[in-house]
Amino acid sequence: MTQFFQFPLFIQIALVVIILCLIGLMFTSIGMASTRWLGYKNAQLTEKYEPIFLKLFTQLVFDFHPERTAENAQTIALAEKEYLQSKKVRRLLVGYILHYKTLFSGSVGRRLVSLYKDFDLQRDALSGLKSNRKETLVLALKELLDMQVPVDPLLFTVLKKHKQIQVREMARRCILTLSEQNPFQVFDELNEPLSQWEQLELFKVISEMNYNKIPKFAHWIHDKSDPSLISLCLKLTVYFQQYDSVPILIKMLKTTDVTLRAEVINALGKLHQPECEAAMVKLYDNEVEAVKIEIIKALGRTGSGDYLNLLKSIFDHEPSVLLRKHAAKSIIKHDALGKRVYDVLYKQGQAADRIILDHVANTNIKY
Amino acid sequence: MKETFYSYLVQFYEHSVFIYCIALFTLYALLTGMSRIVINRNKFLNRFRDYNTLLTSPVAAGISVIAPAYNESANIISNVRSLLTFNYPKFEVIVVNDGSTDDTLSLLIEEFALVQTNYTYIPTLSTKPVRTIYRSSKKAYSQLIVVDKENGGCKADAVNAGINAAHHPYFLNTDVDCILDNDTLIKLIQPILEERKTVIAVGASLRISNSCDIDDGMINRIRPPKQLLASFQEIEYTRSFSMGKLGWSGMNAVPNVSGALGLFNKRIAIKAGGYNSGSFAEDMDIIVRMSKYMCDTNQDYAIRYIPQTLCWTEGPTRLKVLVRQRVRWARGLWQLFASHAKIIFNPKYKRLGMVVFPYNLFFELLAPIIETIGIIYYVYIVVTHQINWHFAIILLLFVYCFSVFITVTSILWDQLIFRHYRSWKEVVALAAKSLLEPFLYHPLLLFSAIKGYLFQLFGKKQNWGDMERKGAAKKQIEAEAIPVPGPNYANMEIPVYKKKQIHE
Domain B23-364+464-496, what fold? Predict the structure, then answer.
């Protein structure tokens, strides 16, 4: 040790680093071995219980006979007694149920949920709700959500203000799925942007839920809402075909956010309401290309025929090939009305024009 | 007086090199810790994100898969079939036939019932002329577009043509000879959907496919390579992706996204000018230019890496081929600094200027030079009997132990994410090879880097070389008796800094 302190400083540092690396290597090797070992043990556990679970699923889910009450109750009691005392086995079973739940809907899906409840498998997830770890909390919420286990609404009120974003996201999903009274209040209280992923998830939740009353999503389409919420509400407005929202959407065309304006026009087009065409066309000349494309597409989707001349003029005079292509496509979308214009354009067109016209007329080409 | 000055100089040099080592080791330790955080976060997100949401979503963002092909007749059919089977709701596959001289195109035409199509191709990025665009007459292959163009001499030109033909807002840049996981798109889009800022590029881990069991463009069983040279590359890739890239991703300072697999925001890539046909490291170059564009336009952005291995590529098994590849990479790095020198230490470019570029300069570009000078100095003091052997051995051990520690840890990190290798023996064998790596593989890389710098310095023209495909290609050749394919991209002549010539 005395000799160590006689070495120059850089040698002392080098020696310390060598020792730290050797200790680190030892821990890494132990870590590697234990990871493999744990993996091996988990694989063994799965191998052992997989046939048992499959038998259980066959009797209680896939080939379920409600009249065999006593037999079913006996199987449940036996499973409880023999192996579901162990948390590891319970979690394994929950994993299988959740997996099958993603594969099956309808009566099988409902049976899976009741199997989960019959075995009281929610006990682990419910205790997970008390955890301070965000991972445990989020996974518990997800499990309860997937299994439609009712949870105290007060809990969500707390969780939607949680410091961790994933917890807040999950709480919002839970409220929209499980809450019976005014689930859409989450949109009123939203004070942060929604990620694109959350938008996808909320879209799925809302579009698949059987709400007593679907709100008018245009209620959240205004200047004060976050653009991400407006974007979601636009998609929902289109999905639920809320035509009476068109005037609100037209008002929204004044927004200074270019991306949002393009989205509003996209939504207007998908609502197929001719009364919005004039408002969009008015914007055309001063817009950037992305918005112009949306206006052209919207005119095609609406297909009233009032602006066929404009589309023809765009095809004839716009220097941008992309705009010309979309104009041609929108002309074709006018069906019989557009056919005549298309034929004229084709007849008068040069080789380059005909490439565009052939492209848009080819049913094998989607875009 | 002379003696004193000399000893001061030596002392200064020795201390500087030691401080350099400590700085490098500290950075690696930091990256190791950071990569662990990223892995944990990703594992957690994967547990609670339901990918079915994306798979069934009518509002998912579209992705164009761009796969350039040059003389790939041996693998083209199985690999294109594999690309067409991605699990994703909205994508198209654009195969760019870059003037192949073999039957790549005719095979595609025959297999996928391709017909010449009048197609609106908008040449936003300049490339060699496009000859024809093919689409399939069968509905089943409606996502497939084949762009047949004149040979551009490099992958960059072909990818640019693919970007021009792409319709979706994101594009995946890959090689047609790579084997991709079916869930590649769904996994790569995740960070883009997850982040609240604009993610301009996403990468994932790459691995060596040399000893894997491959059948019809799909991997049946993953094995570490049996050949020593390929094993070292596997170790290098594991370290680079599981540790380096993930660590950088955690700090939002990813220096590059691999050319074999990367998902990019098309709009930003076009704004940045697309791929540079004159660069030897076009993958690194485009990331720098995209980041530069974002900083110049004052937009917040991120570049992310995900830990999952989604791409398997065949590593060179011959020394000559490997050296040629690494010489090219070294030249690319040099080119990068020559063309973007203004970025370094420029606070306007935030992390790119203050972290990525300084790191690349000191620990990537200069490292081989510092190491070579160190070796020369070492030999000199041995020859002149000035060496203190005790200290010298301690210092060598210091570097060696740290290198092995980092490598073994990266293999563990990899084990934490996936248990790709079925048997523990395969893991131990790979970890054991890391003991040899500093003696056998590292000097080779050092030699290649110095050679690359010298080539670049003297403006020597470099052949891209034959990348020789053995694995999947060989199996198919045997089965279908297709003639051995001609040279790959790799055979193309690329003049250094003569970008105009390429575009003309």
Answer: Spore Coat Polysaccharide Biosynthesis Protein SpsA; Chain A (3.90.550)
